[in-house]
């Protein structure tokens, strides 16, 4: 099965793995990568997307820059907290220099243009704040029938404080998760933080050729800076988008807290009339890392 796909991202170390995973997956027909502020400023995440386009051998795949800030309020998040000022834990120089053009249309018009021309439903994978996706659906509602599914990494049901992607732009998240009607799968922290990697896995990635070795170098540096195990959050969304059903999901009507206070950005399940979102609640965790490694090896 071929899966036409666009990835909206804020690379980001785990975004970098997710992009490489998409590039390495034979089912994926990658149409574009669009960028958003998040793990770093949008200028930085765009430069990192260009680096990754080269590293993954994606040729002239369109890369377009999107939102530099949230829809309504300034971002409350410290962007350098997890991924450093360069978004790649200070190791951006392990990747090729940013090169090649950035698409002149910009993220949202590019997504709309590609969707209008799509001959088959396109899967949108959103692995950063949802600002670009909210704008796409608000400004270009006519493209909604061309979207097969939106797969989102975000949220932490029942948890506090808010997960990073949703907390970075709660109004955008409410627009996409609550107010829209496009088929959507949410891959929350509840599942992704259980899928951690260990040094044995990383050794295998490093041995899988020069492209993967560069990726492994960044991940290893990032792991050393943390006191908690590292999870490949965004890769789980790409994997589910690529092989539907990889994650076990359950339909839920959702709410996103937009009031100011300690719950701002929280995603909650409710009993409201909103269309249900498929929320990932479980997975065969032992097989996920093996699936990702198996696919990355194709990048040799
Ligand atoms: C999410 O936040 C970001 O820091 C990661 O790239 C991922 O998309 C996890 O909460
Ligand atoms: Ca991300």
Content-based structural category = alpha/beta
DSSP helix count? 11
Helix content: 25-40%
> Regarding CATH, which class?
Alpha Beta
Strand content: 15-25%
Give the strand order of the largest sheet, numbering strands 1, 2, ... along the chain.
3-2-1-4-5-6-9-7-8
Description:
- It is a single chain.
- Helix content is 36%, strand content 18%.
- It is an alpha/beta fold and 300 residues long.
- A 9-stranded mixed beta sheet has the order 3-2-1-4-5-6-9-7-8, sandwiched between helices.
- It is globular.
- Beta-D-ribofuranose binds at residues 12, 14-15, 39, 82, 127, 153, 163-165, 189, 233-234.
Task: Explain briefly what this protein structure is.
This protein is of the alpha/beta class and 300 residues long. The protein has eleven helices and nine strands.
Write the layout of secondary structure elements.
Layout: E1 3-9, H1 13-24, E2 28-35, H2 42-55, E3 63-65, H3 107-116, E4 122-126, H4 131-139, E5 147-153, H5 164-168, H6 170-179, E6 184-187, H7 189-192, H8 199-206, H9 210-224, H10 233-242, E7 247-256, E8 267-270, E9 277-283, H11 285-296
Parallel strand pairs: 1-2, 1-4, 2-3, 4-5, 5-6, 6-9
Antiparallel strand pairs: 7-8, 7-9
Helix pairs in contact: 1-9, 1-10, 3-4, 4-6, 8-9
List keywords for this structure.
single chain, 300 residues, alpha/beta, Inosine-uridine Nucleoside N-ribohydrolase, Chain A, 9-stranded mixed beta sheet, 36% helix, binds beta-D-ribofuranose, binds calcium ion
